[in-house]
Amino acid sequence: MAVTSRGAVLRRATAVAILAMAPVATALAERPVNPYEGDTELVPEGKSLFNQYCSHCHGPDAIQGERPRDLRRLRIRYGDNAIGVFYSTINDGRMDKGMPPWKGVLKEEVIWRIFTFLSTVQTQP
Amino acid sequence: MGETIKMKRNLLTGLAGAALATASAAVMAQAANEWLHYGGDQSNTRYSTLSQINTGNVKNLRVLWMHSLGSLESQQSTPLVVGDTMYVTTSTGPKYVFALDAKSGKVKWKHEPEMPNDYFATVCCGLDNRGVAYANGKVFFGRLDARLVALDANTGKQLWNVAVADYKNGHAITSPPVVYKNLVVTGIAGGEYGIRGFVEAYDQSTGQSVWKTYTIPGAGEPGNDTWKGDSWKTGAGSTWYVGSYDPKLNLLYWSTSNAGPWGGQTRGNDSSDIGQYTNLWTAAQLAFDGDTGKIAWGYQYTPSDVWDYDGVNEAVLADVNIGGQRTPALLHADRNGFFYVLNRQNGKLLGADPVVPVNWAKGIDMKTGMPIEDPAKRPRLGVWARNVCPNLIGGKNWAPMSYNPQTGLTYVPLFNMCMDIASKEEEYTPGKFYLASEFNLDMAGSEGTNLSEILAWDPVGKKKAWTIKEDLPFLSGTMTTAGGLVFYGNQHGALKAVDAKTGNLLWQFNVGTGILQSPITYSVGGKQYLAVVAGRTKGPPSFFGKIGQRVIDASPEGGVLVVFAL
Known about the structure:
The structure holds two protein chains of two kinds. By secondary structure, chain A is mainly alpha-helical.
C-alpha cells in the first residue's frame, strides 16, 4: 500500500471529471488521489499522526476555533478540489500564513493517512 | 532609578498571619512615576508605589484615550513609560513600535520594521512581541526574525540592527531584553524547534556581542554528561521570556524552557529513574555573572522534562523575612505547578509548594531539590500518561504575577487543566516543530468549569490568602499598587480592579477584546494613569480543542491600548 512518490499518486483527473460531467475548467486541473480512500482501518492511525504533527495549530482531532485554519471545513471551502489544496499546502506550505512546507519531512504514507482521517471529520454544508 | 523607597512597616501583615515582608532598595528600584522595565522594575515585581488611584476611588476610573495597535494577533506588550513618553510594541513582528505622549496618546514617532515574509512558519505559538527595553536614550527590542534592534528614543531612528540567530531554523525573539550598565541582554525562543538555548549580551552603543552563554553545556563542559549521546545539540533550554537583574549582587537571572524534543527517550532513560540524564540546564533557573555571563548557580525545576514544563516564567526578586532572617529571595511560579522560593544569592531551595492540583510529583525533596515523581504520570515512548495535572500550559504560564511588599502577597494567574500525553518517535529537521509527543489538552482540571484563577499567595507563610475563580483559561498577568489594588483581565475583555487584601471586585471595564498582559500604571504632571494593552490570544488556544474554541469565541481578536484616569 505504501506510496513512494508524489508522481505515483498524481493522475490526470480529466477522465474522472468527464465521467462525473464536471465543468471543463476544473477537469483540466491535475488532482492527486488518496491511495487510502475509504480505508477506515487507517483512520485511528491518521488521527494519531495528525495530533502529533498538526494539532498545535489545527487543534486536537482537528477541533479548534480559528476558522481560517479549521481543516474540518476543507470540503465546504474547496469542494472537489479540497484534496488538491490539502496536498499542495502540506507539501509547499503557506509561509506567509505560518504553514511550513512538509515536503521531504512527512512521508507520502503519513500525509495520506492524515488526509484519510481528515476526510472523516468534514463539516457538512 | 536606584533611589531608596522606604516602605512603612507593613500595616497589613495581620492578613492570614502572613509573615512580615519588607522591600529593599535593590528590589524596589522603580522610579515612582514611571514604568521603566517590562516588569515595572528590574526585579519583575509589577508593583507601583503610586496610590492616587486606590481602593476608595478606583470605581471612578474613566477612559481617557485609546490607541489602535494596527495588528490583530495576540497582544502581549507591556508599555514602558519614560518621563512623559510611552513606548509600546504590537504583535506580528512587531508590526510597529510606537512612541506616544503618555498624557494624550498623540503619536511622537512610529517605527515599522522591515520583516521577511516567511518568519511566520518558524514561530511556535503566536506572533508575539512583549515590548521594549529602555536605557540611556535608546529603545531596544527583539524581533520574530531573531534580530535585536536599537532605536533613538527621541526620534525612532534605527541605530543598529543585528542578527542574534538564524530564524529559519526556529530561533525567534519574543520578549524585551534586560538592560544594565552598558549591556543589553537578550534571550532566544525556539524550544519547539530543537535549538540550543543561550543568553547573549550586546554593547548598548554599538550592537557588538560582549558575551554569550549557552544554557546547555557543550562537549567536555561540566554537565554535558546529563545528556544521552548528542541529544544536547537539539536539547532546547531556550530563554524566550524575560530576565531579572539584581544590581547589588550583579547577578542576572534567566530561566530556561522545556527540554527538546518533548519526548524524552532521545535524551535519557525514558523512565522516572532518570539517573544522570537530568538534561542540564533545561527547565531551570540560572543566575549569570552580570559582567562575564558565567553561570553563577543553577537550580533545575523539572529535571528530565517530558511534560513541556517549560521553566521560563519570570523570577521576581524580593527581600523577605524567613525565620527571622531577611533573605534575598527569588520567587517563581512554575508551569509544573509548584511555587518556588530560592535564595537568589546562592540558589538554595527555600520553598516549593503546589499552588494548583499537581499529580505528576508528590512533592519536591527539600534536601535534594528533586521532584518526587509518580512514574505513572511520566509519558514514555508509545506509553500514555493519563490525566496528568497540570497540563503543559502549566499551573502558570508566562502571564506575569506581581508582588506587593505591603501585603507580602504574590498575585498569580493560574490554569486549572490536565492532559493525556505520550512520547512518539520523530526525526529532527531544522526549522520544523520537533516535539516527538502526542497529547490531548481538552481536559478540565479538578475545578470543573473554572479553568483559571487569580491566586493571592503568601510565599513566606506558604498559604493562600484569597482566590478568584474564572471560567476561561488565559487570564492576563497582574499588577499591584500601593493604592491597595490588584489589576488583571480575562479573555472576555474584562479589565478588573480588586482589593489586594481581600480579592473583592471594586471596578471592571470591558475593553472589547481579550487581555493577556498585565496593565501598567504611571504618573505624569501629578496625575496617575492606568494603561492596558488588549488583543485576545490567538495561537495557543488551538492546542486545546473545544476549550480553546470557547476562548476564541469569547471575544474578537484585536489590538488596542486603553488608558484610564480618575
